[in-house]
Amino acid sequence: GVGWGYTRQRSPGGVPRRLLMETQAVDARSAASCSDGTSSALHEVASESQLGQNGRLLVQAGGGRYIALIAHRGDVHAIDATCYHMGGPLLHAEIEDCGPFGPCVVCPWHRYQISLRSGDSLYQNMSGTVCSKGLKQRVHEVVRRDGKILVRIAHSDKIESDNYAFKTPPPSSGGLAAPPQRRSGEVLRAGAAGVRRPARLTAGAAGDVAKSMCGADGR
Questions:
Q1: Which segments constitute the Rieske domain (predicted)?
Q2: E strand or H helix at 57, and its extent?
Q3: Measured between alpha carbons, how far is 51 from 158 in angstroms, rounded to an integer?
Q4: Half-sphere exposure of 128 (CA within 13 A, CB side)
Q5: 26: closest CA among 71, 67, 62, 60?
Q6: Per-domain residue ranges of the chain
């Protein structure tokens, strides 16, 4: 694998690259075909030991797609590493419990919540119910086998995270990139026991809710 750090290197074409701290790019190797005979395959992307204590690792698979491996409560999730909304880094994003949608990453740039299970982008309606804006972020199946982590790249009609999936993610160093501000649309705490709740929506925040329904495609 190639070590990453806050250094500047040059690609073969002479273009400088800013690399991410405490992550590692791992060359993916095709390990097995799907049992249903489709063209999708399992790609060996890392060993479990490479996840380390923080449980986060940046890998590439499927022709150079950047994927964040995120270990959480005994599971390993694979999600496109760059937020669908405006390209924020998800590798070290905070994780919150979003009720029926399971654990969610919270983009450090605009505080969007994205389900690690499904890739749905979430918001809270006026009655306090957590709702989905629809599938926005591509998530990938993870198989753990003999200490290795394998990923099956999800294929479907184009979704918004595809716009950033093959571009080098912005630097990610853990925690928030900037002090938290009012979350877009006050997007959401699920309201489960022990989980913080958002302040009551004001008229301005309600307007933000509508805006937060829009993604990179403006819809």
A1: 43-151
A2: strand 56-61
A3: 29
A4: 8
A5: 60
A6: 2-195
